[in-house]
From TrEMBL:
One GO cellular component term: plasma membrane
Keywords attached to this entry: Cell membrane, Membrane, Transmembrane, Transmembrane helix, Transport
Topology within the bilayer: Multi-pass membrane protein
TM helices/strands, residue ranges: 17-35, 68-87, 137-160, 166-182, 189-207
Protein name stated in the entry: Inner membrane protein YgaZ
Main subcellular location: membrane
GO terms classed as biological process: L-valine transmembrane transport
PANTHER family tied to this protein: INNER MEMBRANE PROTEIN YGAZ
Compartments where found: Cell membrane
Organism field: Roseovarius litorisediminis
Family: Belongs to the AzlC family.
């Protein structure tokens, strides 16, 4: 088996990240369009994307502000949507936590759904990789993704209202998250969290300011955590005792 170099691993990451461009282009273009419709100029739309770099949170905050929701509610909702980033960071810490501060800060900035989903699966399958190789893969995944998000935010802001309604760019949002989540539903805890969050989101869809999404996120995390605890407890009970 040929030795994997840091450079080759970086390009592995770039190749793994490239397919996400297919859904990121309409996703980021749609954000640019919606941002200009909400009153932002091109520079403000781009600054929003560069500063936040989290599509779901950007859409949430912008939609709430456009609907006249209080700024506090918009900020809290966007932060709640982005709580998953804290979970992503905790999950990546065993693999990247030993990196220098500036590298961890850069990795934190580029931690988005796509870089996390690709990296955590690859790291688990390549436990022999060094820290440098893991970082190379992570930043390789980010390379085709994040610049395209910025570029097509600008393009969406430029074309603005000229995008035909029939083009239905919003299809990219659910497809993006389905493509990310489906391969990661590997355990009963994952499935329980997904199922409970979907059910609660549907039941609470009528709540103002999209508060139903907050309730769904909290309920999903609680369900997943509870199933995880029960699974470990059952495994401990069923494991045969060891006599020394």
């Amino acid at each position: 088996m040929p030795t994997e170099t840091t450079k080759s691993i970086f390009w592995q990451g770039a190749r793994d990240g490239a397919p996400f461009i297919l859904v990121l282009i309409p996703f980021s273009t749609l954000f640019g369009v919606v941002a200009t419709e909400a009153g932002l100029n091109i520079l403000e739309a781009l600054t929003f994307s560069v500063a936040v770099l989290a599509g779901a949170a950007q859409f949430t905050a912008l939609q709430l502000l456009s609907d006249g929701a209080p700024t506090t509610i918009a900020i809290i909702s966007a932060l709640a949507v982005n709580l998953r980033m804290a979970l992503y960071s905790a999950s990546l810490t065993p693999y990247l936590g030993a990196a220098p501060l500036w590298q961890r800060a850069l990795a934190a900035y580029f931690t988005v759904d796509q870089t996390y989903a690709s990296s955590i699966l690859k790291f688990a399958d390549n436990s022999h990789w060094t820290l440098r190789q893991r970082l190379s893969y992570f930043f390789g995944v980010a390379t085709p993704i994040c610049p395209m998000w910025f570029l097509f935010t600008v393009i969406g802001a430029l074309v603005g209202a000229s995008v035909p309604d029939g083009l239905a760019l919003d299809f990219a949002i659910p497809i993006t998250f389905l493509a990310l989540i489906a391969p990661m539903l590997r355990t009963s805890a994952h499935l329980a969290a997904a199922l409970v969050s979907v059910i609660v989101a549907l039941i609470s869809a009528g709540l103002p300011y999209n508060l139903g999404l907050l309730a769904a996120g909290v309920a999903g995390m609680m369900a997943g955590a509870q199933i995880e605890v029960l699974t470990k407890r059952r495994a401990a009970i069923s494991a045969p005792g060891k006599l020394l």
